[in-house]
Amino acid sequence: MNRIVRILLLAGLALSSLTVQAQSTRLRAANKQFDNLSYVSAVRAYEEFLRTDKKKDAADTRDALIKLGYSYRKLQDTRNAERVYGELVKTYTDLDSEIYLYYAQALAANGKYRDSQKMYSQYGEKQAQDLRGRRFTVSYMDMSRFYQDSSSYRIQNLPINSRQADFSPMYYKGGLVFVSSRDESGVIKRVFNWNQTPFLDLYFHPDTNQLRVPGAGLVNSAVLGGGTETKEESGEAANDNKALSKAEIFSRTLNTKYHEGPMTFTKDQNVIVFTRNNASKGKSGKSSDGVKKLKLYSAVNKNGKWVDIQELPFNNNEYSVGHPAFSPDDSKLYFVSDMPGGYGGTDIYVVEYNSGQWGSPVNMGKEINTEGNEMFPFAAECGNLYFSSDGHEGLGGLDVFMAELKDGIAYKGVQNAGAPINSEKDDFGLITDKNGTSGYFSSNRKKGISDDDIYSFRRSCKQLNILVYDAKTGTPLQNADVRILRNGVNQELQITNKAGRTDLCVDSNTEYEFRAIKEGYALNSVRFSTLTQSPKPVLNVSIYLERSENTVVRGVIKTEVNQKPATGVKVTLRNEKDKSEQTVTTGPDGGYEFDVKPNAPYTITAQKDRYATKKAQYNKTKRKAQVITDSLGLYGVGDVFQLKNIYYDLNKFFIRADAAQELDHVLAILKEYPQMQIELRSHTDSRATDTYNIRLSENRARAAMDYLVSRGIPANRLMARGYGESEIINGCIDGVNCSEGEHQQNRRTEFKIVAVQ
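^ thats the sequence. predicted structure below, dont judge the formating
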């Protein structure tokens, strides 16, 4: 495995038990290469010492074998690592527990699961606090769960792969940006001392449609299970598609003489966050232990060029941060670090992101992170977090896992993606489409051209038909709404056709609920599970609706700041007559539906972390069997609202009559949410000096605050701040001729929510 970015993250995790006992020239030379992290050279030196040095004593031999095994491990040479660790376990009885762990991992990576199970068991006896020993011992008793859905997948080796490492693809403008150590052009060939391969850079292929080549590198699940390898499956066919294999350097601004690694983009693809060696102004930096750590950097796309490269504020010279992944709404960044206080080697962390401002990193917790290494996160549009790990039970090496997040927590644990996405080797860097049915991932499985390769995957559909009928007549019901719930969370809303049918592709190992809604009928639902697999290519479920006088209440939860649907909101309907409650959690469309008994007043409450709780009360329904539609808006911490009608006369800061009407709207919001705290942000146009404008804007913000205080809002709920001309919104900066109307657009006041309850 030639994945240097992963290697660097783990570079500081050296064997604590290794001591230097260099009693011969050969051993002294080998230890020097090992200490310099030059593992290719160290392997040669240790092998030569063990083969030729006749005067070596037992302690030297033991020490050399331990370091040789560790060097092969770092080079991902699992077969030689297995050989060396096997010799150690056979010869010595006083080995540290980690030798048994490394031996177990090497055996699993070579597909020897029964032997690996025995070593994991021994490791568990020696290191009882590390759950990996027990987990893998039990897991390898029955391997079938890793192959449950394997027949549904088709894997293809991509023609963009080179003879060197290619990995960690990311979607970008219809193409793929990826990491590669392919040979560079130019006279000087730089190589990484660790394993004598070129440094990593970012490359780009502009069109993913060109990567779907019939017959090129197609690998079926049976082959991955140990069948016969063909020319196409070995990846050799990819070389025949030279017209498609061309990939260009992504950015000469971002690529440097050091490593650039995995990256992520905001939804508009105008901001990139990427991994790079610790370097400043072209000079490499090191930690106190002499290791070059990884850092995260951001850049902005302006006129087609990446500019304004900045370090992220939570970087640190003493530990690595890397492998970034934005959440679908850009509100969070997931990343990997070996910072102190984690659960294992490398952990996944999350940090809040808001308009260029970063929060404080938070560990994703023990549901995600283990005593091993978690890395390469990807946040899919459907809300699932994909990542790779060698600490959760898998087929060997790094496996890809998926976790459904609820309020930032993997509330149902993690799920192994299974074969053929996973193999006995390293599988990582997975990205998917919004439905999770196709995408790309990286692997160093033997079917690749050489070392790490990028593969595409496509999952065939397991179709489920949902049929809605009138319970009395058996007539199919057209235009009935069907709400799909996946593991208890609302998903999309579908509509039945003339035959009363709608359908979807179901995922394996998933609990579904389908709720059918139609005016004049009582809401009804059925549950469906794919925890057990059916051999049928098409499945059916039926929902029967009874005629009813109940009222159906439906609506959409939106965020007030941009009026977009809010996902992950807990919506509760309370029947104020009998005090019963119903609860749903919104999905991507923000929708909810409830069945309400006639002549009953009810209350709807919408709750989400870091948002103000919204309550709406409704009286008794006026008529029976109706559908009531309503939408609720949520105010969230960090939301900024422009008060569009609050303008000021030139050089003035008193509240005009038209501005007072807009402030009365803010007043109503603050009274509705008595725990809400806001910042009043005032801005000026660019005329006059910076100092004058700061003072003027501060006076304007204070005037707005005084207005609200005078009408009963406690001053401790309000903050006033002037920004002067620092945030011009229309380009009317110093030296630019603008009309009075254009200048007035910049003389504005906003309010930002800083706290809610």
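The domain at 639-755 is CATH 3.30.1330.60 (60s Ribosomal Protein L30; Chain: A;).
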